[in-house]
Design a protein that fits this description.
By secondary structure, the protein is an alpha/beta fold. The chain is about 35% helix and about 15% strand. A 7-stranded mixed β-sheet has the order 5-11-10-9-8-6-7, sandwiched between helices. The chain has a 7-stranded mixed β-sheet with strand order 19-25-24-23-22-20-21, sandwiched between helices. The longest helix has about 40 residues, at about 415-455. Homodimer. The glycine cleavage system is composed of four proteins: P, T, L and H.
């Protein structure tokens, strides 16, 4: 049998050689189809089914250089000596020859002719040029550059805490989820049939949260702990139908959480009051909710049982921010009576990464499930009666609720939630409890040792992992720690907190003793104290109830078993590893390996977001470079990197506009004009900023009705705050009147907010700033290659014109602002829990831009437009293409109309989507923005074939 296979292989190779001919340019091409791969093998791997492939098929129709030709090379050109690992040709998949043929098939003599006919002349820029990286670094140069930046980051041992802790990322999870494109390139699980693996993992996440918090309902993750608390505050307001307008925050909450809630409260017309727990007063009768921290930001563990009963007696809902690791040994919030519980899953195997991305959570009772933000994964049954998973509740889907939504959240942190869930699966309930007991034990040993030293005073309240210390001079102790490459949290001149985590060792505790002894010899060791230390948790607060009892958390505790489980789930899903994901408006393109590599390097992963900035010089240099590059790309003057999702960017951009109007005394400017064709999050974001939405329609070609917009702007000129517009339009068209639209808004006292969702069709050809926008958010996870991770992470930085730069968000722990910094600063508040949002994934967009260079990025936009027009041309004889520009072309995406098939064949778009999935394809965006249609976006990184 083996001999027969070898003979067959030789016969195929012989036939392949015989059926190629030498062409005049020294290349070979196929005369006829060749049996290249056994058909049964093709069937098992390919969505195309069983077929005999030609060499031309497999190579996308390209001619291949003849490696066994006889031509001699007589001279060597300079071009031939240049580096071979240039990046744009790896990202932009269509070759120049293919580009010419595709443009010709669309009716144009060249790609540039197609672009000239597509992008309106009035908004075209001559060219885009970077002051840095204009030529683009090669992949090897980029990796060296990132190593240089990493070397500038100094990893000190962190005892800062405040919601961020070092953790051991199990290598099996690091390699097989975080670094695995089959997990990080998936899209949101809207198409459940090809998402069963990640849906199961997200259900594990929800189960983990509900078990540990003691509440029955959890969502499938939120952005970070601070914004999760803000979502809970909005829920409290919504539960009481907005009748009570005060929200109280206990001053034992993390400072970043308090500031985010204050910022968010402005738009809801809520009053936020911070108070000491003992001073909280509900006598006004106007309080809708109260937020407390458990354990507190300074480490204390309090029994909130009576506190919660008192709040409930006054009709006040209780939100509790908590720590998942602590809940393995502490009485859960649900048993204490909390109504809503929020927090971060970061310390469950997700690196600090200078602030994110990390999966937050929100859990509540069944009573409030329809008011929860985000997504809920549920168990259902399929058409044959078998168990199946789906997104059971999406109560905040903005394209349905629009300005009636109380949250604009439309994404999650699915990749990080999956990592945290797998961490819980790997360790199981006993393993997690052992980690928690060890962390608590180390904190206890430290507290015991300080008492022995007698030079400082240890807080008498119970604690879990954080010890509060009163001393004569906190700063001198912190300076001594700094010299030993240790970071402590200084609360004031006489108070320090020291937080322990999974990575802390007995040796670390001994180093701390040396620091706190002022360098004097210490007569004992941490190890010698261990046997004397008892738990600091009162018996009444020790956890008695079981958790993680489901078999899934009790089966996969060896690496071999977990590896198989991860791959079993992975095999049920579709990602960019398997197929094109042609989602209109979502830009699913190559997430190159060179871009992803730095994300797991220790110099980027192991830095606390509140570490002194001199320890993060590599990060700071990258932020400054990235800000400068994004300003050049967008035509803006300053950028904030803080918003850690596209919807968060929308909200931040509108809040900047709001702050600008307020600074001028225009408090009455609160009207936001939004076309009906806008992204669904737009009206929800405007509503969150306290704006009143005025809708304007579109004409028969899908463009904004300019005369209707003009009338709306003039009718509201005394109250006009902003216009929210997407460009190219959501219908996939470059609207000719966009510059006129911007002028109308400005003439009537408003600002133009541009949604950056479709920047993939702008970069290098035009820009928001050139068109006339004042502010724009960028979906770095769309245009700039951060992978979607099965529904997150994302990043949504905002760029602004000079007059808006002073109002960009800051942070209460590490002050931030615009990049480059404006001359003066009057920040709107805090948007995200970390100063620079999800800093760990910014290297992805940075390396993409730096390797592509200005020409590579411009070519990417051109090829994205070419690919969309090529597909539209191929499909137009079979399906109506709904919207086109004035010259009959589309932008980077297009909409085909399937409504006719309902009458002629009883076929709905959902039937087409499911049939595509049967053949291993991810279906395009279905029934949005026009019901009964499919919106298709091929992107530039998909090849012609």
């Amino acid at each position: 049998m083996e001999r027969a296979r070898r003979l067959a292989s030789r016969a195929i190779l012989k036939r392949l050689v015989n059926e190629t001919k030498q062409s005049s340019n020294g290349q070979m091409s196929c005369r006829s189809p060749v049996l290249y791969t056994p058909s049964r093998y093709v069937s098992s791997l390919s969505p195309f089914g069983s077929k005999y492939y030609s060499r031309s098929d497999l190579l996308g129709g390209r001619n291949v250089p003849n490696s066994f030709g006889s031509q001699q090379v007589r001279s060597i050109s300079v071009e031939a000596l240049k580096s071979s690992d240039t990046f744009p040709r790896r990202h932009n998949s269509a070759t120049p020859e293919e580009q010419a043929k595709m443009a010709e098939s669309c009716g144009f003599d060249s790609l540039d002719s197609l672009i000239d006919a597509t992008v309106p002349k009035a908004i075209r820029i001559d060219s885009m040029k970077f002051s840095k990286f204009d030529e683009g670094l090669t992949e090897s140069q980029m990796i060296e550059h990132m190593k240089m930046l990493e070397s500038k980051n100094k990893i000190f041992k962190s005892f800062i805490g405040m919601g961020y802790y070092n953790t051991h990322v199990p290598p099996v999870i690091l390699r097989n989820i975080m670094e695995n494109p089959a997990w990080y390139t998936q899209y949101t699980p809207y198409q459940a049939e090809i998402s069963q693996g990640r849906l199961e993992s997200l259900l594990n996440f929800q189960t983990m949260i509900t078990d540990l918090t003691g509440l029955p309902m959890s969502n499938a993750s939120l952005l970070d702990e601070g914004t999760a608390a803000a979502e809970a505050m909005a829920m409290c307001n919504n539960i009481l139908k907005g009748k009570k307008k005060t929200f109280i925050i206990a001053n034992n909450c993390h400072p970043q959480t308090i500031d985010i809630c204050k910022t968010r409260a402005d738009g809801f017309d809520l009053k936020v009051v911070t108070a000491d727990l003992k001073d909280i007063d509900y006598s006004s009768g106007d309080v809708c909710g109260v937020l407390v921290q458990y354990p507190g930001t300074e480490g204390e563990v309090l029994d909130y049982g009576e506190f919660i009963k008192n709040a409930h007696a006054h009709g006040v809902k209780v939100v509790m921010a908590t720590d998942l690791l602590a809940l393995t040994v502490l009485k859960p919030p649900g048993e204490l009576g909390a109504d809503i519980v929020v927090g971060s899953a970061q310390r469950f195997g997700v690196p600090m990464g200078y602030g994110g991305p990390h999966a937050a959570f929100l859990a509540t009772s069944q009573e409030y499930k329809r008011m929860m933000p985000g997504r809920i994964i549920g168990v259902s049954v399929d058409s044959s009666g078998k168990p199946a998973l789906r997104m059971a509740m999406q109560t905040r889907e903005q394209h349905i609720r629009r300005d009636k939504a109380t949250s604009n959240i439309c994404t999650a942190q699915a990749l990080l939630a999956n990592m945290a869930a797998m961490y819980a699966v790997y360790h199981g309930p006993e393993g997690l409890k052992a980690i928690a007991q060890r962390v608590h034990g180390l904190a206890g040993v430290f507290a015991s040792g300080l008492k022995k030293l007698g030079t400082v005073e240890v807080q008498g309240l119970p604690f879990f992992d954080t010890v509060k210390v009163t001393c004569a001079d906190a700063h001198s102790i912190a300076d001594a720690a700094y010299r030993s490459e240790i970071n402590l949290r200084v609360l004031d001149a006489k108070t320090i907190t020291v937080s322990f985590d999974e990575t802390t060792t007995l040796e670390d505790v001994d180093k701390l003793f040396k620091v706190f002894s002022g360098g004097k010899p210490v007569s004992f060791t941490a190890a010698s104290l261990a046997s004397e230390v008892e738990t600091a948790i009162p018996s009444g607060l020790e956890r008695q109830s079981p958790y993680l009892t489901h078999s899934i958390f009790n089966m996969y505790h060896t690496e071999h078993e977990l590896l198989r489980y991860i791959h079993r789930l992975q095999s049920k899903d579709l990602s960019l590893c398997h197929s094109m994901i042609p989602l209109g408006s979502c830009t699913m393109k190559l997430n190159a390996t060179a871009e992803m590599m730095p994300v797991t390097w220790p110099g980027f992963t192991d830095i606390h977001p509140f570490a002194p900035q001199e320890q993060a010089q590599g990060y700071q240099e990258m932020f400054n470079n990235l800000g400068e590059l994004l300003c050049t790309i967008t035509g803006f003057d300053s950028f904030s990197l803080q918003p850690n999702a596209g919807a968060a960017g929308e909200y931040a951009g509108l809040m900047v506009i709001r702050a600008y109007h307020m600074s001028r005394g225009d408090h009455h400017r609160n009207v936001c004009i939004i076309p009906v064709s806008a992204h669904g999050t737009n009206p929800a974001s405007a509503a969150m900023c306290g704006m009143k939405i005025v809708s304007v329609g579109t004409d028969s070609k899908g463009n904004i009705n300019i005369e209707e917009l003009r009338k709306a702007a003039e009718a509201n000129k005394d109250k006009l705050s902003a216009l929210m517009v997407t460009y190219p339009s959501t219908h996939g068209v470059y609207e000719e009147g966009i510059d006129e639209i911007c002028k109308i808004i400005h003439d009537n006292g408003g600002q133009v907010y541009m949604d950056g969702a479709n920047m993939n069709a702008q970069v290098g050809l035009t820009s928001p700033g050139f068109i006339g926008a004042d502010v724009c958010h960028l979906n770095l996870h769309k245009t700039f290659c951060i992978p979607h991770g099965g529904g997150g992470p994302g990043m949504g930085p905002i760029g602004v014109k000079k007059h808006l730069a002073p109002f960009l968000p800051s942070h209460p722990v590490v002050p931030t602002g615009g990049i480059p910094a404006p001359e003066k600063s009057d920040p709107l508040g805090t948007i995200s829990a970390a100063p620079w949002g999800s800093a760990l994934i910014l290297p992805i967009s940075y390396t993409y831009i730096a390797m592509m260079g200005s020409k590579g990025l411009t070519d990417a936009s051109k090829i994205a437009i070419l690919n969309a027009n090529y597909m539209a041309k191929r499909l137009e004889k079979h399906y109506p293409v709904l919207f086109r520009g004035v010259n009959g072309t589309v932008a980077h995406e297009f909409i085909i109309d399937l409504r006719g098939f309902k009458n002629t064949a009883g076929i709905e778009p959902e039937d087409v989507a499911k049939r595509l999935m049967d053949y291993g394809f991810h279906a395009p965006t279905m029934s949005w923005p026009v019901p009964g249609t499919l919106m298709i976006e091929p992107t530039e990184s998909e090849s012609k074939v």
